[in-house]
Amino acid sequence: GAGVSQSPSNKVTEKGKDVELRCDPISGHTALYWYRQRLGQGLEFLIYFQGNSAPDKSGLPSDRFSAERTGESVSTLTIQRTQQEDSAVYLCASSSARLAGPPQFFGPGTRLTVL
Amino acid sequence: KQEVTQIPAALSVPEGENLVLNCSFTDSAIYNLQWFRQDPGKGLTSLLLIQSSQREQTSGRLNASLDKSSGRSTLYIAASQPGDSATYLCAALQTGNQFYFGTGTSLTVIP
Fold first, then answer.
1. Does the CA dihedral A37-A78-A46-B84 come out positive or negative?
2. What are the angstrom distances between the C-alpha of A17 and each of A72, A79, B13, B76?
3. Higher pLDDT, B18 or A39
4. CB contact under 8 A, A45 and B98
5. Lesser CB count within 10 Å: N end or C end of chain B?
6. B19 or A101, which is more confident?
């Protein structure tokens, strides 16, 4: 595919359930980012993967959040025991260079609603 | 902690006008600054990226400037069109690969 894809596009879940969000980056992009945007707020960095290096998890809001990436391919963001404040659009982005200098290319996002 | 502010929060202009969007940041130790547009229901689109050593970047009708010492960046849009209507976000990349995003400027260009 030509761009970053994410699935599902929408997810509605009940409080306390676990959810898994998927991101397929652009082929060959070594860097992958997860962000979230809650209603009325700016984008919030969550986690950054660069090749096989240890990910930068400094943006994860709690230990209920985790993410994995195998090599330079698909990434999954998992939220355990979801809370209503987790409702947001979760965006994934990828870029091509080691130092994240070039522009990031974003996916369409997953809209998560926790009831 | 870096704080990124965008002014105005919303802007409405008639078609054909030139306009300037403002972005300010509190920590000048940035690696680069990037401007995005966000359309409803779609992902972000990267518009322009300015490295910390650069002063400006241009793409078509768009021109972005960066003044690190004053903590400011501007996005200039020439001859605005209704298709330019969107939310515009700026983001500062700190060393350590963390982006700090502003809350955006919602632009409406009236035909």
1. negative
2. 29, 9, 45, 45
3. B18
4. yes
5. N
6. B19
pLDDT of residue B107: 95
Give the integer Cα–Cα distance in Å for B68 and B71: 5
Contact B43 A100 (CB under 8 A): no
Mean pLDDT over the full length of chain B: 89
Whether residues B43 and A91 touch (CB distance < 8 A) is answered with yes
Q: Residue B94: is its pLDDT beyond 80?
A: no
Strand order in the sheet with A5-7: A5-7, A19-24, A75-79, A65-69
The stretch A65-90 carries a mean pLDDT of 94
What is the predicted pLDDT for the residue at A101?
Answer: 47
Nearest to A106 among B32, B43, B96 (CB): B43
CA distance B49 to chain A (A): 6
Contact B51 A101 (CB under 8 A): yes
Q: Say if residue A100's pLDDT is above 50.
A: no
Residue in chain A closest to B30 (alpha carbons) equals A101
Alpha-carbon distance of B39 to B33, in angstroms, equals 20
Q: Count each helix (H run) and each strand (E run) in chain B, helices first.
A: 0, 11
Using alpha carbons only, what angle is made at residue B39 by residues B41 and B51, rounded to the nearest 5 degrees? 130
